[in-house]
Amino acid sequence: MAPRDLESAFPGLAGTAYEVTSPATPVYNCVAWAAAEDSRWWEPDPFQIYFWPEGIQRNAELDSYLAAFATLGYEVCESAAPEPGFEKVAIYVGSTGQPTHMARQLDDGCWTSKLGQDVDINHTDPADLAGTLYGNLSHVLRRPVPQQT
Fold first, then answer.
1. What distance in Å separates the CA atoms of residue 22 and residue 126, rounded to the nearest whole number?
2. Alpha carbons 11 and 96: distance in angstroms, whole number
3. Distances (CA, A) of 127 to 51, 69, 112
4. What share of the chain is helix, strand, coil (3-state, %, to 5)?
5. What is the pLDDT of residues 58-103, one digit of tens each?
6. Which residues fall within 8 angstroms of residue 1, CB to CB, at 6 or more apart?
7. Radius of gyration of the chain measured on its C-alpha atoms
8. Which residue ranges make up each domain of the chain?
9. How far is 123 from 54, CA to CA, in rounded Å?
10. 111: closest CA among 101, 99, 125?
11. What is the model's pTM?
């Protein structure tokens, strides 16, 4: 997606330091990318075509997304600001209250998003993607940074 198209779809990106970080691919989506995966599509579809954590309700409600990320150790937190020792993800909801997008915070405090089947981008703030397409930031979740062995 060209910068002009990105800024048209996401007016909050205009004038910010965002960058495209990977080419378009249909292999994974924003939910998978928020979970730090790029090899499969995450979606709570009732037909079980896509990956969704075992035992978590397969519906498009916010509670299902919160529960899915709880299986990865995430819990709701107050702020999107970086916190030493924690990883964060953001959940956006549309006018119906259903999740529309997820983003993941990077080590430097910036955010990364997979835009559907399109490109991945790094952007400075979760609010950069708020608007007609993705709605607004609803929840920020955090988990302790996993210990490396």
1. 19
2. 21
3. 27, 21, 12
4. 20, 30, 50
5. 999 999 999 999 999 999 999 999 999 999 999 999 999 999 999 9
6. 9, 20, 24, 115, 118, 119
7. 15
8. 3-144
9. 31
10. 125
11. 0.94
